[in-house]
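Entry 14: structure prediction run for LacI family transcriptional regulator. Input pasted below.
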Amino acid sequence: MRRRYITIKDIAKALDISVATVSRALRDAYDVNPHTRQRVLDMATELNYKPNFNATGLVKRSTHNIGVLLPAITNYYFSTVITGIQQVANENGFNLILYLTNDSEETEIRIVEELSLSSLDGLLACVSAHENNYAHFSQIIDDGLPVVFFDRVAAHIDASKVMQDDYNGAFMAVEHLIHSGYRKIAHITGPKELSLTQNRLNGYIHALEKHGMRYDPDMVVHSGFSQADGVGDIEILFSSIGSEPDAIFAVNDRKGIGAILALKQRNILVGPQVGVIGFTNDPICEIVSPTLSTVAEPAYQVGREGCSLLLKHIAKANFAARSVTLSAELIARQSTQRS
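Run finished. Output C-alpha cells:
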C-alpha cells in the first residue's frame, strides 16, 4: 500500500489557494507572486512535503534528468524510441534515467510510487498492460512532475500524449489483405484494456465492414505482445477444424513472426495459403522467411516528439496538454503474396 504523502492538494488546502497556483509556485513559474511563492515553500517545509525536498531545492527544481518508463528495451520499437528521446535530450543538455517494468502492473506502480521527484524534471511513460489503473500517475502529476505518455498511453489522464496512428495503420493492413485476395481475416492482438489494442481492433473491424465482410469476434484473440503469444494465438485459431482463417493481422511484428512459425509447423504455406501482416517494421521482418509485410511505426519520431513535448512542459508550468498522432506506412512483402 502506498504510504501517505503530503501532496500539493494538502498545501493548497492549508493556504486556501488553488492547486494550480501551488504547482506553479513549486516550479518557480514566472506568473506567481513572490510572496505567494514563499508562502507555498514555507508551508511545503512545514508539512514535510516530499521530505527529500528543502526550500532551496523546491525553487531550484532543475536536475536536467528525465525519466523514461518502458515495458522493455529488448525490442526494436522501444530501442528506436529511446534513440529519438536521447537525441532531443542531448541537444538540450538533459540526461535520461531508464525504468523498466517488464510489462508488469505491480512493477510499474512500485517504480512510480518510489520515484524521487527531486531527482527528475519530468517523466516519459509507456504504460504496462493492465486495467486502466493509473492513479499512481495522477499522484505524481498532482505532485507537480510533468508527465508525457507515448505509444501505450493512459487515455483518461489529462497529460500530453504521443502516438502512432493505430487506427488507420490497422485499417491499411486489413485492407491490404483484402486487396490481396484474403477473405477470412483473423486478428491476434494485445490486452483488451489498452487504448492501442482497441484502436487497432477498431481499424480491423471497420476495414472489414467497408468491404462488406462480417466481423466475427471468434476471429480475434487477445493475449500479450510476444512471439510466444503469437504462436499460442495461432494454436487457438486453428484448434477447430473448419474455422481456420486465411489471413492473420498481428498487433505487432513479434506476434506476426510467432504466427509465421506456428503456421510453418502446421505445413501451411505463408502467403499462398495464409497471409500474415504485422505492425512495427522490425528489421527481423526482412530476415524471416517469407519476409513479413507490416505497418511501419514512426518510432524514432515518437521518441523525438515525446521528449520535445516534455521539455516544453518542464520549461513552462502551465503549458497545455497536447495529443500528437503520427502517421504509419504500409510495407508489403512476401507474407501477403497469394501467388
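Notes: DSSP finds twelve helices and twelve strands in the chain. Will compare against the previous run tomorrow.
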